[in-house]
Amino acid sequence: MDNKNNKIETNTNEYAIEMMHITKEFPGIIANDDITFQVRKGEIHALLGENGAGKSTLMSVLFGLYQPEKGEIRIDGKTVHINNPNDATNLHIGMVHQHFKLVENFTVLENIILGVEPLKELHWGEESASNSKAKAFFKKIGRFLSKTFTWGNKHITMSLDKAAASKKVMDLSKKYGLNVDINAKIENITVGMQQRTEILKMLYRDNDILIFDEPTAVLTPQEIEELMQILRNLKAEGKSIVFISHKLNETKAVADRVTVLRKGKYVGTRDVKDISKEEMCEMMVGRKVELEVIKTEAKPTNEVLRVENLICVDKIHHRNVVNGVTFNVRKGEIVCIAGIDGNGQTELIHGITGLIPLKEGKLFLNGEDISKKTIRQKNLLGISHIPEDRHKHGLVLDYSLEQNLVLQKYFLPEFSKAGFIRFKNVRGYAANLIEQFDIRSGQGPITKTRSMSGGNQQKAIVAREIDRNADLLIAVQPTRGLDVGAIEYIHSQIVAQRDNGRAILLVSLELDEVMSLSDRILVMYEGKLVGEFKCGEATAQELGLFMSGAKTAEINAVKSEGE
Amino acid sequence: MEQSKKMTFGQWAKRMMKKNSTQTIITSIGCAVVGLLVGFVILLCINPNNAFQGILQTIQNFFAFKKAATQFKYFGLTLAKTAPLICTSLAILFAYKTGLFNIGASGQYVIGVLITCFAALAWRLPWYLCILLAMTGGAIWGGISGLLKAYFNVNEVISGIMLNWIALYLTNALFQANAGSVWDLMLAKTYKIDSSLPGFLPTLGLDELFKQPACGLGMIIAPVVAIIIFIILNKTTFGYELKATGHNRFAAEYAGMKGKRNTVITMCISGALAALAAPLFYLNGLSQWEVQATVPALGFDGISASFLGGLSPIGSIFSAYFITHIIDGGSTITSLGYSPQTAQVITSFIIYLCAFVPFVKSYIDRRFNIKEMLLTDSLPTREETQQMNSHVKKRDKRKKEQKEDK
């Protein structure tokens, strides 16, 4: 603590972090090319860029995971060499990772103090000893044991001072408005509280520089608002904050300044108040991007999918994770199921597509009962499915691109003859799709999909599913983890499919996507549909209330023609 | 030197290292060499005087004989013994491609032996029926594991190991119960199947060529089966489904492939292949069944052979030959004063190390595919950048986690 106070007094330098002309090369690629990144003391600085722009590499350099080839790092005006994360910790740099690093079955308090536990001397029965001779004896033993074992693990001769730890955590929590239950286990608390635990972890270690790696990806709108407030509180207390993101709304809302990276190069640093979202986006992508999805009003006609009173159980706990869901999707409309992750959306889609069995309820596709059909029959009858997890369900990563593009078609006469695959046709078909959907890969159709980028893998799946010309297109988080350019492309494809007369069922956790893409929004909470809105009818705040279960409404999600 | 004008040798070598086939060949040879070195060290520890001679004999096998004719004769014997190993190795790799580990190949082989001997000795059936029946038996035996796996989610390794022992004791018991027709009480083993029986495999003149009565049709059946398996796996929709299931069963299910049915069929085919080893071993008089206390190693050697062959049916032919060659050669070092157990330890070590091929290969793959970007002529596109970063991100995530753990 002394050390920290000294620093603040003696140093009048303007910047908390200065990364000057950082160049980091990997074999064959320059991940960071002459990047200068300066964070003022007590500001929230957003680091903006698409996937692969070099944000993570830059932060890894700051965190000591990589050593840059060129450039220097200054913390509080002093040049430092950060060789490993321990150095970073000693310099009071802390980071909240996108995927929290918490021990699930430990309490919040235990997680916070993990690794820096406050210790107190263990007394080897000295108090309970009856006379001075015995006391001296125990002391001797204690010292001997300390000397012998301390090199191995200090916990053997010291005991955990939980009271001190809990007092410090409570103080911090009060000071910054971080509301947590310190005795609750991580597995029982909400994602928002887990994130606050991570923040407390950094504060507990007296970190002055806090790095947040895409902190809002997992939060509801209300939680995001709360986080923004926390960030402002931290700023008010003089912490310097780096906020890594590719979301423009949040950047605009909370950051003071923004630094944009593109393809490993430094694009610029601006004051957030002087720059519009469109300008930021242009800096990030390098060209003008349509932020709003352009679409005309939906003209829904015939009912394509009807789901009646569907009940599905999850595989592990056998709970009804989808509990009596009824809705329909009509030709020429995009129906979106919104909700926080884990409220049964995954199981609902798996139930509809046939990946898990239905416990109860009925499914109709174009009026035909498909509740008992197999996945292949459903595929052939006209369901195509862009799955949530492209690596688990969407692709066979060790197969080549062309093999993946015929994943549901290889047995059709077009691609097989007497049990043998017609390789020429497969190649031709793949080449067509690759050209049509602009799927980029190193070696064209024979590229192993594992070696392709996430955006192109997703494009391959989208291409495959759209080209199957099914009546119903189910898209689950079709833009997860993709950059702005790819998102724009996939959104436009989905809208084009709607205009081509397909029925589209979209599941998304991103409210922006839900709001901009859908014609009808159904909110799912704990396995039930709790709210229904038309396009443009509800605000993000209102949706958020429904998503978190604060509000519910009687709904009738089955709509008839032309309504 | 095959290097093109543009590339230096180093670049050419790097490009070659990226190729799957080169990686397989190099790692296979590397593992075999390391295995031999370990064997050499063990011999040095046991008896330094004859160590070099010992390892030389192991490698030489029949080349140790002076006369060319004798060499050729024993070459034929090694070839004849290779055929069964090719079959078990194919059984392992076929199941492996579907993501199943058929450790029950030994048991399926034992069932094959049981049926082969009964068919040839007791029922005096012609050789093709013997083979057909043996393969059917193996298919059923393998199918049990497959059914358990598909419908009751019993791990095929567990059921395979248990079925191995059931098959072994069943075979021991049934042979001994049929003394006279199958079992020779005097010698305590099954009667030898010789050319007087209709079950004896046609020799096609190969026995004349090699001056070795065991040579014959078996030597041809095994490689032909390997080629058929190669075609099934690589050219048919069935193979496409199987491999998709093996690589990613979730994606296969998503695509509507029948995972359960494929599991059962795969195990049946795998079992039939393992059982095919039996007629190739017994219908030419190469071997007779004695009461055995342990499951025959042939099925387990098949694991090494398939891994050493880079999980390719064609590669299996060569790797199976290499392993048979080493086993045969290793058995000769008893003449140098080493115990038979030592000989087995040496060959086992070599075979064991051969099974490391896939792990070494994946390491090489990771190394050279990170560096492959160096070779691209144009600048990396955004996609390649992302791809690079995903590699690196994964690595530093791992590093970070390790460091944080500390």
How do the helices and strands line up, and which of them pair or pack?
The complex is a heterodimer of chains A (563) and B (406).
Chain A: H1 2-10, E1 15-26, E2 29-40, E3 44-48, H2 55-62, E4 70-75, E5 78-80, H3 85-90, E6 93-96, H4 108-113, E7 119-121, H5 132-149, E8 158-160, H6 162-176, H7 191-204, E9 209-213, H8 221-236, E10 240-245, H9 248-254, E11 257-262, E12 265-271, H10 277-285, E13 303-313, E14 320-330, E15 334-338, H11 345-353, E16 360-365, E17 368-369, H12 375-381, E18 383-386, H13 390-394, H14 401-405, E19 416-417, E20 420-421, H15 423-437, H16 454-467, E21 472-476, H17 484-499, E22 503-508, H18 511-517, E23 520-525, E24 528-534, H19 540-547
Parallel strand pairs in A: 3-10, 3-11, 6-9, 9-10, 15-22, 15-23, 18-21, 21-22
Antiparallel strand pairs in A: 1-2, 1-4, 4-5, 7-8, 11-12, 13-14, 13-16, 16-17, 19-20, 23-24
Chain B: H1 9-18, H2 20-46, H3 51-60, H4 68-97, H5 105-122, H6 127-152, H7 156-177, E1 183-184, E2 189-190, H8 206-210, H9 218-235, H10 237-247, H11 249-254, H12 259-282, H13 298-308, H14 313-331, H15 340-354, H16 357-371, H17 382-405
Helix pairs in contact in B: 2-3, 2-15, 2-16, 3-14, 4-9, 4-12, 4-13, 4-14, 5-6, 5-7, 5-12, 5-13, 6-7, 6-12, 9-10, 9-12, 9-14, 13-14, 13-15, 14-15
